[in-house]
Amino acid sequence: MTTTTRREFANGMALTAAAAVLGLSPKAADAEPPPETTRLRLVRFPFDHACLAPQWVAEELLKAEGFTDITYTTTVDIMSLLLALDKGIPLVAIGGIHAGCFELFGTSRVRSLRDLKNGTVAVGWGGGQALVTAMAAYVGLDPLRDAKLIQPPSKEAIELLAQEKIDALLGFPPEPQELRKRNIGHVVVSTSEDRPWSHYFCCMALVNAQFLKKNPIATKRMLRAFLKATNMCALEPERVGRFLVDRGFVKNHDYAVQAIKDIPYTRWRDYDPADTMRFYALRLHETGMIKTSPLKIIARSSDWRFFNELRKELKA
Q1: d(CA 138, CA 119)
Q2: What end-to-end distance do the CA atoms of the chain give, in Å?
Q3: I need a labelling partner for 200 at 20 to 30 A (CA). Which of 65, 95, 268, 274 fits?
């Protein structure tokens, strides 16, 4: 059983009130019928990652959209999504959420991606390995031959970089914030600032294909709540950071706020999620990490109807 402290309740209410003031009130579209189901089983990273704030902020907005039973499991990023789709897992990408989670930090030896040649890179999980592989391939390296990719735990990877026992580390909040505070390494690639990476989503909304088929109204309502929550992160980073800490989603308030401020949450209004899937699928297909053609993946596993409708509906 989960208990809620007075402070947590107050901050949760403050966040909801702020959403209303900012025009992001969790009021469902009056013209739409109720969702076909009131039960949602949502994905969530089991880690201390403030960049995923929209999915936590969205909880009250989801309730206002008519969902009463909300549970969470593990989630995936765009690279893990493509690896899953290549295996035939029945998922459908329905929209982009935000860009710019990841940063590649290097030692003084690594000034550019090409300097990863003959180096060792800590990449974390499977999606991180895929992203570094895509980045290396983009500049003409064969990551399987030209570099060594390892997957130590986060704290160990940071210490390895600090001691220069590895050449680079792919950071995911709160790792970049800690690296900066401790003055460890330097940023080689920022996916929020450096092209072409900054022009593509890193995190996307997806649903089970069967759920989408059976529950199109629920799917749209769910996506609306997440896009409103994404706007909330852009408009109220301090308030969102405090909410995440009070609810136990992240540990360090300063790291959380910095991550939320650094991530370009508003770019979902401008970027094309199909471009993201195409770009990264091409990179992974070139390296042999996925066998399915990018065109087939997009045709079989994407549906942008609701995302395009909501971009018009939620236009600032």
Answers
A1: 17
A2: 40
A3: 65
**What are the Cα distances from residue 273, in Å, to 73, 198, 228?**
23, 13, 17
Q: Which residues of 236-271 are buried (b: 16+ CB within 10 A; e: fewer)?
A: bbebbbbbbbbbebbebeebbbbbbebbbbebbeeb
Model confidence, pTM: 0.84
Interval 64-86: pLDDT, tens = 888 888 876 545 578 888 998 99
Q: How many residues does the chain have?
A: 316
Q: Is residue 196 reached through a cis peptide bond, with omega within 30 degrees of 0 on the bond before it?
A: yes
Phi, psi dihedrals of residue 112, rounded to the nearest 5°: -150, 170
3-state secondary structure the chain: CCCCCHHHHHHHHHHHHHHHHCCCCCCCCCCCCCCCCCEEEEECCCCCCHHHHHHHHHHHHHHHCCCCEEEEECCCCHHHHHHHHHCCCCEEEEEEEECCCCEEEECCCCCCHHHHCCCEEECCCHHHHHHHHHHHHHCCCCHHHHCEEECCCHHHHHHHHHCCCCCEEEECCCHHHHHHHCCCCEEEEECCCCCCHHHCCCEEEEEEHHHHHHCHHHHHHHHHHHHHHHHHHHHCHHHHHHHHHHCCCCCCHHHHHHHHHHCCHHHHHCCCHHHHHHHHHHHHHHHCCCCCCHHHHHHHHECCHHHHHHHHHCCC
CA distance 203 to 290: 19
> Which tens digits make up the pLDDT trace of 222-231?
999 999 999 9
Q: How far from 121 is each of 108, 109, 181, 192, CA to CA, in Å?
A: 14, 13, 21, 20
| 168 touches 104 (CB < 8 A) | yes
- Cβ pair 117, 147 in contact under 8 A: yes
Residues 99-125: tens digit of each pLDDT: 988 999 999 999 999 999 999 999 987
